Structures are given as structure tokens and as C-alpha cells.
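Internal ticket - ligand job 109, heme C:
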Amino acid sequence: MKSTIRNLITASLVCGIPSLITPAAWAADAAAGKAVYSAKCKSCHGADGTPSAGMAKAMGIKPMGDPAIQGKSDADLKVSITKGLRKMPAQSVSGADLDNVVAAIRTMK
Ligand code: HEC
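stdout (C-alpha cells):
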């Protein structure tokens, strides 16, 4: 019984520590970002990153896959998202949500 517990502890240390120290532990989560996107961004940008024709025209929104957007750095996209850009109002997204929503945008190409 004791050794079972010790084995469990050893196993969790062996499996747990590498995942804490590898960069993957901090990698943004595109799936979580998609949920943020669906809640806060979809109304203007469309469910999959392609705005409706009306929105695209009225607001000047490009598809998320556009090289003009994908060509920007994550840092620049975060500025656009949090400060707003022309007709896009500043969005209150921060911390992990912001990292994750940018990761979701990177999947929309
Ligand atoms: C009220 C409508 C609206 C909402 C809501 C909205 N956007 Fe936008 N977004 C725009 C418009 C309009 C533009 C085009 C700005 C321009 O290039 O003139 C834009 C552009 C962008 C761009 C391109 C920025 C760039 O630097 O080229 C990104 C990225 C973006 N939005 C992300 C988001 C995210 C993420 C959310 C949700 C958290 C969001 N938007 C919510 C209207 C909106």
C-alpha cells in the first residue's frame, strides 16, 4: 500500500514537472480563445473569422485570414484588440484570454 502511494507520487512528479517547465505549459490555448472569440468578436467578425458581406463593407472588416492581419505580430494584434482600431471599439480582453484569442485568430487562415 505504502509503495503504491510512493509510486503514484513518483509518477506524478515525473509526469508533472516536465510539463511545468516546458514552454507548452504557457502556450496559448486556441480552443479556449475560440470561446472568447465566439462570445465577444463573432458579432462583427463572423463565426469563423469571415465577416458578413454587409459588415465587411460597412465597417471595413477583413477576413481574419487576410495577410494584412496574419502578417502582424501577436503584440500588434493585441494592441488593435485592446485599444481598438478605426471602427473597431477597444475590447475588454486581457491576460490568458487575450493570448488565447490571438491563438484562435492564428487558426483562421
Ligand atoms: C463592433 C464590432 C467589432 C467587434 C465586437 C470586434 N471587432 Fe475586431 N475589428 C472590427 C473592425 C471594424 C475592424 C477593422 C479595423 C480596420 O482595419 O479599420 C476590426 C479589426 C480587427 C483585427 C485586425 C486588427 C489589425 O491590426 O489589423 C483584429 C485582430 C480584430 N479585429 C480582433 C477582434 C477580436 C479578438 C475581437 C473580440 C475580442 C474583436 N475584434 C471584436 C470590429 C469589431
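Auto-summary: The pocket of heme C is lined by residues 37, 40-41, 43-45, 59-61, 69, 72, 76-77, 80-81, 85-89, 91, 93, 101, 105 (CB under 6 Å). The CA atoms of residues 70 and 106 lie 7 Å apart.
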